[in-house]
Structures are given as structure tokens and as C-alpha cells.
Amino acid sequence: MLKEKIEEVTKANEEFYHAFESLDVGRMDRIWLQQEYVTCIHPGWGLRVGWPAVRDSWVLIFNNTFAMTFELTEIQIQVAGDVAWVICTENIASRQGDTSQESRVLATNLYEKMENGWKIIHHHGSPVME
User: Which domain holds residue 50?
Assistant: First the structure.
């Protein structure tokens, strides 16, 4: 049972990063739990609380980014009942206009099990200083 839950969370986390890479807010809408208690902290940003504020942050990122790809490393997945968390390093290549950049972000993604699958309820990214 635990192995099955970990596989489900792995797929949910992969879908989160596919939505991120696609720069498609509609895809992001489908994987987030749209509740007032969801939260998001992007690197260098303040805390966003509640689905409208979290969604607005994705719209802002997607409107100002032309391309983004992720390679995840150091992935750890834990499940406790109907809550799961993924900790990983995001190795990101992105392009904004004519500028390309690479960065590393330490991320925590928290998921809640719902009737229609695992939904993300919290994302926190912190830059890795090299």
C-alpha cells in the first residue's frame, strides 16, 4: 500500500513539473487543490496564501518566461496517511527574452490525497547558493 502511494505521489509530482515546464496555467489549475489554505513560496518571493494568490503567481511567472526545463535530483518522497511531501533539487534551465540562465533550487512540494488523486497544496523553492 505504501509503495503504491509513493508511486502515485511520484506521478503527481512529475505532472507538477510538466505543468511548470509547459507554462500552461490551465494545467497548473488541474493539479493544485483550489482551497484557501494552499500556499506557495517562489525563490525570492514572499508567501502566497490561498488559491487566487497562488494562481496569480503562476500566471506572472508564465507570462514572463519563454522556456523552462527541469532536471530533478536528490528526490525524497514520504507519505503519511493522506499527506505526502517531496523534497528535491530543481536543476533549472530557463529563458526570458534573449537571456538564458541556469539555476538550482531546493524544493518542497506537499500533496493531499483527494477523491480524484493527489493534489499539490504547498510548493516552496529556495535558491541553492553555490
Answer: 2-127
